[in-house]
Amino acid sequence: MFISAYRYTGPLLEEEALKKAAENGLSSPEFLELCVWLGSQIKPLCNMEESITSTDDIESFQLEISGFLKEMSCPYSSLISGDIKDRLREKEDCLKLLLFLSTELQALKILRSKQIKGSHLEKHNEMYQEVQAICDALGLPKSSSSDIPPLLANVELKIKDILSKVQNNHVGKSLLTKPLNSDQVERLEKINDALRSEYECRRRMLMKRLDVTVQSFGWSDRAKVKTDDIARIYQPKRYALSPKSTITLAHLLAAREDLSKIIRTSSGSTRENTVCAINKVLMGRVPDRGGRPTEIEPPPPEMPPWQKRQEGGGRGGWGGGGGGGRGGWGSGGGRGGRGGGGGGFRDGGRGGGGFQGGGGGYGGRGGYGGRGGYGDPYGGRGGGGYRRY
Fold first, then answer.
1. What is residue 373's predicted lDDT score, i.e. its pLDDT?
2. What mean pLDDT is predicted for residues 163-188?
3. Which has more confidence, 327 or 68?
4. DSSP letter assigned to residue 283
5. Which residues form the domain of 60?
6. Cα 360 from chain centroid?
7. What angle do CA 45, 51, 56 make, to 5 degrees?
8. How far apart are CA 138 and CA 147, in angstroms?
């Protein structure tokens, strides 16, 4: 049976059983299960949105199979048009459905196998180019065969021949003294990927700073007339820089013990390669741009949002003397607005009044209630109020 090649292990492997299931159509559970299985094999191969999953509800199955066939551009009009309940009543239509799904699955598997072979071939070509570069560096003749193992055998023989002609300590001992298993190699690859991503970000930032710096050099009038000359010199060197790191696991395997020796960047041997004429240029005195927090004056105090700004007076405290502002307890201001001239909670009259108002402090002139008595608004300039002492 044709579906046996797709690793189908259901009950419809025999041709007679398949014909009987097609005659029963949607009333056959085996037919529904085969359609669901074919749909599950097709969907991941072409990233489809629709799927066939329902076998318990016939109406849901018909809706799903209709959407699935339309997304796949089914050429059989009897399966995608007309009344949805009449599309799979005939045996021929059921066989058409199975034929279409199985042939689509076969075509998708063929395309996928070609893609896998193509990726393997591309990877093989990349490895072959790297091995051929090693052979060219060692002076080995080019081989007509593209097999990598014979090339590696020739490389090994050539390296052994070269090492036999030099001193024992010429290459040095390997920095990595223990062999790596597959799990360790995989973990090192992940670590290297994370480091390469981090350093790629840093390299991009430095390259952008380089571009901005060189661009700022062209702002002067003298440099504007030499824009083409600057670009002719700068652009080739700039585009030779790559933000991606070229460090791989092979660099770790090839590292020697001398790599672990830390050399100061200011040492004489290092400065011989990094010294530049610009390092000897001394900058003169530059103007002071300020910006020190200790030299900044604080802003003027702001009025509270719930109070209007008042000129010539503030709010008195305990026994304070606000000049026309809102008095505190026993404040002794002048001729008063709200709380002025005696202060207190209520408006005073002319000098005095209010709760604990008066000409003095607490219990000043006028006694406890001040000249206006206890609560001056109910009295007059004097003598009024609830109580008087």
1. 41
2. 86
3. 68
4. P
5. 1-166
6. 70
7. 140
8. 18
Which pLDDT belongs to residue 311?
61
SS3 16: helix
Determine, yes or no, domain membership for 292: no
Phi/psi zone of residue 267: left (φ > 0), alpha (ψ -120 to 50 degrees), beta?
beta
Per the structure, how many domains does the chain have?
3
Taking alpha carbons only, the member of 249, 245, 238, 237 closest to residue 201 is 245
Amino acid at 118: G
Residue 307 lies in a domain: no
Q: How far apart are CA 104 and CA 111, in angstroms?
A: 11
Instruction: State the CB neighbour count (10 A cutoff) for residue 111.
Output: 12
Lowest mean pLDDT among 155-164, 211-220, 286-295: 286-295
Measured CA to CA, the distance from residue 374 to residue 100 in angstroms comes to 104
Shared domain check, 160 and 44: yes
In this structure, the answer to whether residues 19 and 110 fall within a common structural domain is: yes
Tokens of 331: 């404040």
Report pLDDT digits (tens) over 65-75. 888 888 888 88
Give yes or no for a contact between 341 and 348, defined as CB atoms under 8 angstroms apart.
Answer: yes
Q: Say which residue the tokens 């404040």 belong to.
A: 331
Cβ–Cβ under 8 Å, residues 328 and 317: yes
Q: Please say whether the beta carbons of 98 and 22 come within 8 A.
A: yes
Residue 270 within any structural domain of the chain: no
CA distances to 26, 48, 51, 86, 156 from 70, in Å: 19, 11, 11, 17, 59
